[in-house]
Please model this.
Amino acid sequence: MDFQSLSLPNAPYLATSPPGPVSRGILELQARLESSAISYPRGLPMAIRRGRGATVEDMDGNVYLDFFAGAGVLNLGHANPDVLAAARAQLEDVTHTLDIPTPARISMVEALRKILPQELGKLFFGGPTGSDAVEAAVKLAKYNTKRAPVLAFQGSYHGMTSGALSLCSGAPFKEEFLPLLGEVHFAPFAYCYRCPFGRAPESCSLECAAFVEDLLENPHSGVANPAAVVVEPIQGEGGSVVPKDGFIQRVQEACHRHGVVLIFDEIQAGFCRTGRMFSSEHFGVVPDIMTMSKALGGGGFPISALAFRQELDTWPPGKHIGTFRGNMIAYAAGAAGIRFMLAHDVAGHAARVGEVLLGLLKEVEAESEVVGEARGKGLMLGVEFVEDKATKKPAPDLARKVRSKCHQKGMLIEVGGHYFNVARFLPPLVLTEAQARKGAEIFAEVVKEVEDER
Ligand SMILES: Cc1ncc(COP(=O)(O)O)c(C=O)c1O
Model:
């Protein structure tokens, strides 16, 4: 299938300088009537009329290349025809049944069974958000181990509900809301560009993994036996950080030695995003519990799930519940989405186009004084901005400026990272190589501009 046919042609196309007058009017209305907590329209000021494939059209007729995909939800692009057909058909049948089974629910279970590791023999659908899946995963680990402490990682993002927020490392997200869950501890992630142990990847011996091992083994580490270790195998919001090979494997081995439940959060990195169905496949590690959401719903339909080892399925009926425990439209759309991923080798496509894009971003890194590192896997890429390459002082203002200038030139990207200084590339995976090349060209132009303006 030619993925270009899924997108609007000739993107980017600018009818007016964004945000145009119609978008501005809608944004003003939103600002007047909605909470000051709204955030994305501040970085990407626009009102969206429609999305197709890897492109988005705003209310003023500007057409953008979408390198954000609604925060990594729209892996199959906007308005994927197979996903929409399944959703439309389901709308006519039944839309809400709690957890009473339907053909749509079973089609999702069957689709997931085709792609999940065999070891994760049980599925659970709780509330519709990723945060809820994280809450459920931690509860399941606590229920089974009868322990409370949880180990998470610096640079992590797991959601905004109190339990999930406790596991997020970002201080700005939680400082006014403390205390949250007690006994959550944070270990350094294998973030080689800023190794907390002062090592270089070529010569390190995975001191970060040894640190986790020590936390679990040393009776005076300060961490009482944890119920769970929660980790994104490839960090998303933390700035597309791919850990050095061996880190995830050693974390798993340490968990197994100490009866700690290993939870992989695949909410952002799953469903072909990194060039494999799940990011943990890069490391050959199967966790005890896996959380899924975002792209699970096929194209923006809210749903989340856990997959876990059969022996953990000890909790009684109703131990984690919610009114929206599954959504029939999302089941039907998501199952169609998984079928599309398999039929069109979306993982392979993401790996190939991602490699081309990363190569081009690496060229920007080589030429620019303010790009510390371009990195990532598949189509989960990031470019880290610094004041200069020698000090590596984080430059979050530059990253924000780049986002804004990219928007002005018809390309949507977001900002993340441990220091909020990483331009994040998270496009729909139906992005074509030509679209990736165009995006890289715009990005390179913008980086040159911000560098010259310093
Ligand atoms: C890795 C990861 N886990 C959990 C979440 C939370 O998902 P939600 O925003 O649907 O609650 C996110 C959201 O960005 C995420 O990236």
